[in-house]
Amino acid sequence: MPIFTRFAMIIVFTALSAFSLNAAQLRHNQLLSRDHYYISLNSNDPSFQQRNIVGGEHNNRYFILGLENDVLSVSLTSLNGIAGFSVHGEGIEQRNNRYHVIAMHTWLEVSVSAHPFAEYLLEVTLHDGE
Fold it and tell me: Which domain of life is it from (predicted)?
């Protein structure tokens, strides 16, 4: 994704988080094999849950906006089949099962996949005061 697009999305999500009582979510569907979800959590709605299906060559990617000093946790529960996930992001440090944002702002990327398929529940939580 071009740097300008990422910067524009950060501005939009920062504004949505500041003025919204709920977490903001945008979905971008690539017809080939990717669904991208862009999520912004805030103190009024510090958690995100989604039940979904993934499989074959298809991946679901979740980009969670992280601001400096945010602490996030990610958990994935396989409901039917076995789903796997990985977490990436620049400006993020992993300590135990928590992800600490050390950059001014960044995207925490959670990529979910399965073969042949799986139904799963993804939970992302923003923690206060850690």
Answer: Bacteria
